[in-house]
Design brief:
Belongs to the PufQ family. The chain is mainly alpha-helical and 72 residues long. 61% of the residues lie in helices and 0% in strands. The longest helix is centred in the middle third of the chain and has 27 residues. The protein starts with 18 loop residues before the first helix and ends with a helix.
Length: 72
């Protein structure tokens, strides 16, 4: 039996992101970058280089937050 009670929206595939999405993504990326750099520096002082770098951390954070703003 199919469950129709969930309120999930289908993913939009094949559409280019809007300019507004790019602006928000860029702002969130720029805001999260200093924190990611500080976190990577803290990991470097412990000689723990196993995690992702600061750019990847900031990009991941922006990819998590931006769709939540647009409720994609």
């Amino acid at each position: 039996m199919t469950d129709y009670s969930s309120d999930l929206k289908p993913l939009r595939r094949g559409h280019a992101p809007s300019v507004e999405y790019g602006v928000y993504f860029g702002l969130i990326f720029a805001i999260s970058l200093p924190g990611a750099v500080l976190r990577s520096l803290a990991a470097a002082t412990r000689l723990d280089f196993s995690g992702p770098g600061p750019l990847r951390r900031a990009q991941t954070r922006a990819r998590e937050i931006t769709p939540a703003i647009f409720d994609v």
